[in-house]
Amino acid sequence: MAGHELSQERKRDTLKRKLRRFLGPWGVFFEEFVQHPVMVGSVIPSSGFTIRKMLAPVKWEECKLFVEYGPGVGTFCKPVLDRLPRDGTMLVIDTNRAFIDYLNRTITDSRFVAVLGSAEDVQEIIKAHGHDHADYVLSGLPFSTLPDGVAPRIAEATYDVVRPGGAFLTYQFSNVARNYTARHFERIEEGFEPLNILPCKLCWGWKEPEDNTGA
Asked: Given the DSSP bridges, would you call strands 89-94 and 200-206 parallel, antiparallel or unpaired?
């Protein structure tokens, strides 16, 4: 009986590997959503329409460090790296080891760094990689389903780590991320992308530049 069960388990593992290879990133994303629906938040990665609209306000020529929380299978990674200056860095943070392992296998750009960790620790993480601030931080984290206290701590830590003139970019199906952002960032811009599954709300929280006039 034990031998039969082991054989069946091996067959299931083989089938899962074949299916994952066939589906590529979608397969990895779907599998992690099934196992961790609360943390992944969506069964389907963001659409190209969402990506383009979300990244449009970024001043890429001024961007040296772009941080992303919850990169998943890297839906935003290539578009960001395509726009990032040669001397820039993209640093992504995820608590899901499967996603971090996948990104490290599939993205070979020397400007890319994937870290297994929590967005709450963003300040310590970027310092460990030689930076003292981020120019932009992007998040698709499901703020509405994060454990108690985590979302406000992430919002506060993000404000502290973003340089003056930079921004916190969020996309979610509700206003929760926007509301946490508005507690800290001085200027809020909002958008909506219907061509996404599900349609999502976009928010850009801008940290106002420091007043150097002495007035």
From this structure: unpaired
Which tens digits make up the pLDDT trace of 88-125?
A: 999 999 999 988 999 999 999 999 999 999 999 999 99
Per CATH, which fold does 39-206 belong to?
Rossmann fold (3.40.50)
Sheet holding 89-94, edge to edge: 112-116, 89-94, 65-69, 134-139, 162-172, 200-206, 187-193
What is the value of pTM for the model shown? 0.80
Neighbours of 165 (CB within 10 A): 13
| d(C-alpha 141, C-alpha 93), whole Å | 11
- Percent over 90 (pLDDT), the chain: 64
CA 140 – CA 68 distance, rounded (Å): 8
